[in-house]
Amino acid sequence: MKLSNKGRYAVMALADLAKFNTNKPISLRDISLRQGISLLYLEQIFLKLKKNKIVVSARGMNGGYNLNKDASEIKISEVLNAVDEKVKTIGCTKDSKKGCNGKSVKCITHNLWDELELHINDFFNKKNLGDLIKGRNENTI
After folding, report:
1. 3-class DSSP state for residue 129?
2. What is the domain range of residue 107?
3. pTM (two decimals)
4. What span, in angstroms and rounded, lies between the C-alpha atoms of 62 and 35?
5. What CATH number is associated with residue 72?
6. Could you tell me if residue 141 is inside a domain?
7. Judging by DSSP bridges, how do beta strands 64-67 and 55-58 pair with one another?
8. Is the residue at 140 inside a domain?
9. What percent of the chain has pLDDT over 90?
């Protein structure tokens, strides 16, 4: 299981936005420079984040982005969903009659990977942007 750059960068950029929040819009250029993420890539990510109401934008010379709500109210799972990032550890769909190996039964390790996926998604559902900027590294699983 691997998260794509899109998911990782979305979380990084929003954590940056939360950390440097001064109630003034923050430009993507500033986030790009601080986090080492391509400005063009950030623009694509922020279009999705804005569409999903995680951020709001302001136009003009002092324009940029702000979080739409407090960082502690934005779950990591919400961010990943907004950029179409799916945490998937099994090759088949959960309700499929066929297994990930293409046979009529699920593979012998199917339940293991399914359980892992539940733990990972639960972890991302319990963590929020506020946790990241506070530097909390508590295990909640």
Report:
1. helix
2. 5-134
3. 0.83
4. 20
5. 1.10.10.10
6. no
7. antiparallel
8. no
9. 62
Tokens, residue 130: 């506020």
Q: Check whether 94 has a pLDDT greater than 80.
A: no
Q: How far is CA 103 from CA 91, 106, 108, 109, 117, in A?
A: 12, 7, 12, 14, 21
What string of DSSP letters covers 33-95? HHHT--HHHHHHHHHHHHHTTSEEEE-STT-EEEESS-GGG-BHHHHHHHTT-----SSS-TT
Asked if residues 14 and 83 have their Cβ atoms less than 8 Å apart, the reply is: no
pLDDT for res 141:
41
Report how many domains make up the chain. Answer: 1
Residue 107 vs residues 20, 91, 121: alpha-carbon distances, Å: 47, 10, 22
- Per the domain annotation, does 14 fall within a domain? yes
